[in-house]
Amino acid sequence: MLTESSEMYLQAVYRLTEKTSQTSIGAIARHMGFSLSTVSEKVRRLADEGFLRHEWREQVSLTGKGRLRALGTLRKRRLLETFLYEEAGYAIEELHEEACRLEHVISDRLADELNRLLGYPERDPHGHPVPTRDGSVADSDLASLAETGEGEEVMVAELGTSDPDLLKYAFGVGFIPGAPCRVLKKAPFRGPVTVEVGGTVEALSYEVAEIVGVQDLGKGVGKKTAEG
Fold it and tell me: What is the fold, at CATH topology level, of the domain defined by 4-62?
């Protein structure tokens, strides 16, 4: 049985390789805030157990077994976040920390029951895709609001941060997955982005605009379908 620490390492490697096939010991150390020696030893152990691929001085990647385990833990987290938000009354900024504590202790059976009780959600309250039991996960390669041109109308699809203050602010001004918005003006040199959302006009910092993932209007988010 994998420890909580091992699951966190697999999650880190998954995050770091979502858009690339491999990562490095240094990148994992920076991401997790650990020393190079600590990470090197843990990576070696996980490679010996068949969860990671790594040779001396080479890059690190997930094996099929490691990817399935990482996505299994991620599935639990996103189902827990959905339950806490929809059923337990947690605020958006409270979800990540609470779910991270619980994801390592609930069983696959309980995750399946949460999935059923919640109506098989495809996305969590942040707009992130919920992996299926067999390790499938929807593509989440979205443009950010910061990349959207002036005059374009888009729909909020995802909030790409776990920072509680940013989440509280973004939700507070109306950046909720599924909400339509329009870019009115973009200042140069990473300046403010002025948008209309929820019937109000907001001038966002470039930092906030970068964490708001958007897609074309009409595509829809949060659709629910039973898993096969």
Answer: Arc Repressor Mutant, subunit A (1.10.10)
